[in-house]
Amino acid sequence: METLSEKMFERSKKVIPGGVNSPARAFSSVKMEPPFIKRGDGTYIFDEEDNRYIDFVGSWGPLILGHCDKDVVDGLHQVIKTGTSFGAPTAIEMKMAELMVDSLPNIDMVRMVNSGTEATMSAVRLAKAYTKRNKIIKFEGNYHGHSEGFLIKAGSGALTHGVPDSLGVPAEIAKHTLTASFNNLESVENIFKANPEEIAAVIVEPVAGNMGVIAMEDDFAKGLRQITDKYGTVLIFDEVMTGFRVGFKGAHELYPDIKPDITCYGKIIGGGLPVGAFGGKQQIMSLLAPIGPVYQAGTLSGNPLAMRAGYETLLKLRNNPQIYDKLDKLALRLEKGIREAAKLSDIDITVNRVGGMISMFFTDKEVKNFEDVSKADNEQFIAYFKEMLNSGVYLPPSQFESLFLNAKMDNEHIDFTIEKARDAFKKLTR
Ligand code: PMP
């Protein structure tokens, strides 16, 4: 008999392309149909049939406090009674910006937008205006949203679906995006040598999460700052995923000596509501309209609901730094448990982890860049994913994505997951 999710997917597909509002949700990468999610509670989500899953997706990163965190929900209730949007300055935008500027070492000023895509798109425009140059360097397998200049050798859904380049991106635009290899400084140097006066920005995910979790090596990070300084190029950290995730100060906790000129945010800073932000040096940020010549705007930018959900989330994280230790310990427990479980069944896996971000590749090789990622066995992953889902563990539907732990998780959730992984690996070897 058809499940409610199956029925809803059929209906949705008639009116929404592919039945989803973002491609990865369609689960086509794992060759199955997605459950429709009805509600969330702490660490769990429930589908339309009331099947319960431990949620390791967390809305793809924002829900570091888990679903329906009391402070976030209470804050939203308060706001909603007073109106949902004004298109005029509000106190909560000011407080949010102050909190970010006070907390983050490389941010003098910040501008709010509605998604990570908008943040990176605007950051690059700013960098181009600041340097009066047109080209950017990005890294193969990094994902910076779906604006035109970024859909070139992109990660995440674009990677999973095997269509790294999108139709509709004109060649004249794509030619301004040059692609280097992550953790390979020589590939960056070569591009600079060939285009010494032309590179406006280098944009990087300091801990890549969109080809699975891969951190920048220290020398690579240092090298990026040195080479961008040498050539007068803006260094942009895309911390849409890592911001307030790999530590309260994001990548700064991991690479304190590397100071990006612009940093992009999203996900956690909206506490589960649509948001993005980009900030950086005053000198650069002052180029933005209305005080400068770079136009950027948004009807719902700084929306009171999104700001309040984000503000409550950031306050809680700031006031409870032990959350990061907890996420780190839980993720370490998961990492060890998964490794041991795979070993029991002689399955080759490589686990990469940074704090509470973790991913697992079906390969016995070290995974340090996109080339390594692409060698992982996808059929094994698909079988594993399905087993885990059937056992009540909701993983990202691709090994090229990060799992996200949340603050409501405990050892018992991790141990349950390890136990189910052990069973899943056993079935793979049969
Ligand atoms: N940058 C990074 C690093 C991301 O992970 C994402 C989304 N996963 C984006 C940008 C785009 O953000 P959004 O989906 O909010 O547009």
Describe what this molecule looks like in 3D.
There is one protein chain. This protein has about 425 residues and is an alpha/beta fold. It has two domains: about 5-70 and about 325-430, Aspartate Aminotransferase, domain 1 (Alpha-Beta Complex); about 70-320, 3-Layer(aba) Sandwich (Aspartate Aminotransferase, domain 2), CATH 3.40.640. It has 14 helices and 16 strands. It has helices at about 5-15, 70-80, 90-105, 115-130, 155-160, 170-175, 185-195, 220-230, 280-285, 305-320, 320-345, 370-375, 380-390, 410-430, and strands at about 35-40, 45, 50-55, 110-115, 135-140, 175-180, 200-205, 205-210, 215, 235-240, 260-265, 275-280, 350-355, 355-360, 395, 405. The strands form four sheets. It has a seven-stranded mixed sheet, sandwiched between helices. A hairpin with a 2-residue loop joins strand 1 (about 35-40) and strand 2. The longest helix is centred in the C-terminal third of the chain and has 23 residues, at about 320-345. It starts with a helix and ends with a helix. 4'-deoxy-4'-aminopyridoxal-5'-phosphate (PMP) binds near residues 143, 144 and 205. Homodimer. It catalyses: (S)-4-amino-5-oxopentanoate = 5-aminolevulinate. This is Glutamate-1-semialdehyde 2,1-aminomutase. GO terms for molecular function: glutamate-1-semialdehyde 2,1-aminomutase activity; pyridoxal phosphate binding; transaminase activity. Keywords: Cytoplasm, Isomerase, Porphyrin biosynthesis, Pyridoxal phosphate.
